[in-house]
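forwarding from the other thread:

> can someone predict this with 2P0?

sure thing
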Amino acid sequence: MIGFPRQVTACAHANIALVKYWGKRDAELNLPAAGSLSLTLAELTTTTSVRFVPGAARDTLTLDGHPAPEPARARLASWLDLVRDRAGSDLHAEVSSVNDFPTASGLASSASAYAAVTVAACAAAGLDLDQRELSLLARRGSGSAARSIFGGFVIMHRGQRDDGGDAFAEALSTAESWPVRMIVAVVGGGAPKAHSSREAMEHCARTSPLHAAWLQTVPRDLAEAQDAVAASDLVALGEVAERSALTMHAAAMASRPPILYWRPETLTCMQTVRVLRAGGVPAYFTIDAGPHVKVLTLDEHAERVARTLREVDGVTEVVRCTPGGPAVVVEEPTS
Ligand code: 2P0
């Protein structure tokens, strides 16, 4: 029971999928149609504060210091109902969230956002949930957020149950003993995208003749990616990551009307990575629902990869990322 107002702040990191999530088996419960596998990144962080306020007429959401657009506020309010149900309370919340990277531009902001608000809201509501329960709850906000509850390499399970009780994420490896790096090349200044990933993946599932074929590729890619993580095999993991991204984008491009995230600079970055590789640098690209290119490599090659991507015309920012930790409370509740 929520007895008094107390603010809790939590932070969570974005994650980049190496085996992509692109399609749902249940939209209401936000159940993925296939599993996925990701790496959480320390340098892309969302920090979120939550306070349940007696007498407040409705939930409020501030994003980077400004009132959020109504659709984002309403989506959060529906999700907060799940927390209220669990806590046995009807108090509305004040939520304030800050990203240290461009929001809604294909840099996975909904993942870190819903992971951070899950940890903060549960603590503010006095709920003591384990990481699996937090992941299940974060998934209801955003599928990729279930993965950002954990650090390092993370697997998201498709699950079989209709109620979604087995559709949660799990940590595979903290990546501490394997110096993997992800170099993020921001293309076109990180402008917000025209359509949310949610709308795009639903449109793709409904209209693309390649969507069913895409889903069939995922189990094998997941198994190979898990083996590659267990063996610290960057070549094997990178090859899976590239083909998963390209197959997902092929399905999206075949939608009617088509969804095409790439810009000319996106292709130049992909080609640059292939040239680096031909020159002996282990580097593999992945691309999400946006034009940006993320490159998996090892620490000893990270500077060279980052420098080469910075030289690509139209690349506006390059961020060198290391594996990040789980979503955590950063300020203890005060009464
Ligand atoms: C991923 N993406 O695996 C894939 C690859 C985008 C491209 O997860 O509807 O914002 O909130 O569950 O999590 C983006 O999808 O979708 C995403 P919802 P979400 O990272």
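Residues 17, 20-22, 30, 36, 108, 110-111, 142-144, 197-198, 288-289 surround 2P0 (CB under 6 Å). thats all i got for now
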